[in-house]
Amino acid sequence: MKKSHFSPAFFKFLRDLKKNNNRPWFLANKERYELTVRNPLLDFIGELGPSLRKISRNIVVDNSPSGGSMFRIYRDIRFSKNKTPYKTHASAHFPLSRGKDVHSPGYYLHLAPEEVFSGGGIWHPEGPVLGQIRNYLVNHPKEYKSILAGKVFKRFCTLEGEKLQRPPKGYPPDHELIEHLKYKDFTFFSQFSEKEACSPNFMDRFVESCAAAAPYMEFLSKALMLPW
User: Fold this and answer.
1) 92 in helix, strand or coil?
2) pTM of the predicted model over 0.90
3) Burial tier of 210 (Cβ tally within 10 Å: 0-12, 13-18, 19+)
């Protein structure tokens, strides 16, 4: 029998944290955080690995409490005007096998009150990496358009990302995919509700959304000459 990994208590903690985003409150509620948020997410990640690796054997799924797929709850406030110390969402990433200093495509899971989504692609790549993707897109327009037109992809995935206002330098402004060449991110997402996240079927739904996006992920991998 399938079990629910996430519960209303998971989202209740994140709501309460948003109202009390300070160190004394968090330390007083740290055990609650571990029991209702951290441990369920680590359990989810631990059970997710075999299913994601059926999509690509190179996807990294690691349920280590530190340094694994789960993002830390602590915010990096060194260069931010927002000095609240904790994130008010829980999240995890599942990149292709590469060194941590190299941009590569990956899948992503975001869990917050009234904001649950899966996603993936490549976010804010450095200039040379972005250039590789754009060049590959220019040289493989039919493949790219076929992916976007796929029924399963369209059903599950919505493209998003920051865009240039004008065509990037070095690319024909009249190219049939110019609006896609303007992207600075090549990312997608699939939206879910809190109720869906708390369902025993949520892992299946998440994997289904990842499988739907696999052709897009494979396209990015080929553009960057990474094994898929």
Assistant:
1) strand
2) yes
3) buried
